[in-house]
Amino acid sequence: MSPSKRSDRPGDYPLECDHCHYPIPNDPVETDDGYVCSTACHDAVGDDTTMAEPSAYKRIATGVEPLDSLVPTGVPSNSFLTLVGEAGTRWRELLTELVWRALERGEPAAILTATTPPTAVLERFFEAGWNVLPALEDERLRVIDCFTHRLEDRETFLERRNRWIEFVGETAADSIVTLEEPTATEPILSGLNETLDDLEMTETGLVTIDSLAEFEANHRHAFVAELRASVCKARYVPIIAGTVADIGSDSSNAFADGIVDLRLADHLESAVRHRQLSVRKLTGAQSLPQWIAYEYDPPQGLLVLGSAVDVDGRSTVSDSAELHGRQ
């Protein structure tokens, strides 16, 4: 049938298109089973290609308390985020928790490590009390190894592992993707996309990168742009990458959809140094303009402490005694 429009729009018309699930801004296009927003969606419904709600604008509650408290509507799933943190802010633990929360949701995850051996990356989960062995066995977790190529004597490294690390390495062997020459962006991009294809990661899951600082400054800009285009925008899979504070103003951040800052701050009333987190920017979602005081308490992860801190730096942390007790 040809699509037909109704000139009068009763109040009981649906607010969302039956195909794309976006709001219908004008008169709906009528189908055999309902209403759509356009001829394109009408034809797509006829081809049985209706989108899975709400794929067109999915947002993710990360499961990390301080971050979710500042992004109440969720992080858009097509985002490239950078975590900019100074030493002592536990931004690596934040990356680890983001992966764990994705696994808890039943989603796959990929970790790209350039600073640490894969077994040490996995050990961070066990240190927090999070058992990733089942996720390794059912192929929901992959580690893309951009570190091992640096070792001059890999055999000696393997021989010196204790029994537990040897066990973890053997268990994770099929889940570790070792890149032999990750000195250029192309092998890394290819290795990551092949891994995501293998995990069938489209509109699901999460990718983390332990440190953008490990990639050459001359290529970092193009590297981030390529990752953002081929993974975040094409697959609707978010990437969250860590970086140290001294390159937080790096030009590669021009391509980032979001920037999360982590800092250490002195609490003047209690003479206690505490950690704070704030969302500098986040395209496509609401974020609160505040600093949140937090602490790391495994296996619970990162927890909000007290109240927020205004953007002008005035602390509104209400319970400094509790803060002092957790340091």
Automatic annotation (TrEMBL):
Pfam families for this protein: ATPase
Domain KaiC-like, residue spans: 61-302
Residues making up the signal peptide according to the UniProt record: none
Keyword terms, alphabetized: ATP-binding, Nucleotide-binding
GO molecular function: ATP binding
Gene3D superfamilies: P-loop containing nucleotide triphosphate hydrolases
Name of this protein: Recombinase A
Lineage of origin: Archaea, Methanobacteriati, Methanobacteriota, Stenosarchaea group, Halobacteria
